[in-house]
Amino acid sequence: MQAFIQYSRQFTNPITQIASQMNLLQSGLASAERVFEFLTAEEEAPEVASSRGIRSPAGHVVLDHVSFRYQADQPLIQDFDLDVQPGQTVAIVGPTGAGKTTVVNLLMRFYEIDSGHIYLDGVDAHELPRERVRSMFGMVLQDTWLFAGSIRDNIAYGKEGAGAEEVVAAARAASVDHFVRTLPDGYDTVLDEDASNISAGQRQLLTIARAFLADPAILILDEATSNVDTRTEVHIQEAMARLRKGRTSFVIAHRLSTIRNADSIVVMNAGRIVEQGSHAELMQRRGFYHDLYASQFADAVEAVS
Length: 305
Fold this sequence. Notes:
Blueprint: H1 2-39, E1 61-68, E2 77-84, E3 89-93, H2 100-107, E4 115-120, E5 123-124, H3 130-135, E6 137-140, E7 149-150, H4 151-156, H5 164-173, H6 177-182, E8 190-191, H7 200-214, E9 218-222, H8 230-244, E10 248-252, E11 264-269, E12 272-277, H9 279-285, H10 288-304
Parallel strand pairs: 3-10, 3-11, 6-9, 9-10
Antiparallel strand pairs: 1-2, 1-4, 4-5, 7-8, 11-12
Helix pairs in contact: 5-7, 7-8, 9-10
């Protein structure tokens, strides 16, 4: 019997090894595809020589007849107009592919618009160096990005030359100081490459602390509570509310129930603004936003039942 098992292993081991190598090969091909896609991507357009700057950004953002397309024959953003006053919270909602994320990419000049203008505090963003434009923005995204290093270094990444007291102050503002101090090494706790040694909610709070430290005039907030428990979600929502206070904020909303208190809700479809107003106003109109909200509510009820 033992001889049979030994011979059977000799027969199956090569097959197992081939299957393992095939998995590695497929993973390598997928990685190579992404690398070559990056290498073949078009370079950013050269900067326009300009010494213009904004000394104390207030966060007034205007999009004036903005149009943009990724491909020449497929228009995406068309004749887009939006005026956001300093300190306002504007939620951008719409179905997948409506152009919500594209608007954010255009604001930060990750792409150049085809026509129209984007003004930051009255200055055409095209006349400002990309570095200055992006320094005005802070981002808290659904997918957190933390690097292998200490918690202190991850928070301090938000501001060059930040001191220890500033890091702690930002952590307290983001409600992250308490949990950090419960760790054996506190702020010197080293995160692994994907920060898997802390929870998803704790990772999100660290990115909020980083945004507090950066102290930007304008915030980009992608809904950050989809993968956390209810109690952690409350802490994250409270921290984000403190972060938005006094700052212009663009909230890319996926769950419409979380943006009912926004100053203005911009409803997008096929690259255009189809509706705009407060939650109450849009619900009374019983238009596109009302249908989106009702469908999400119906889906939630169905999931519970």
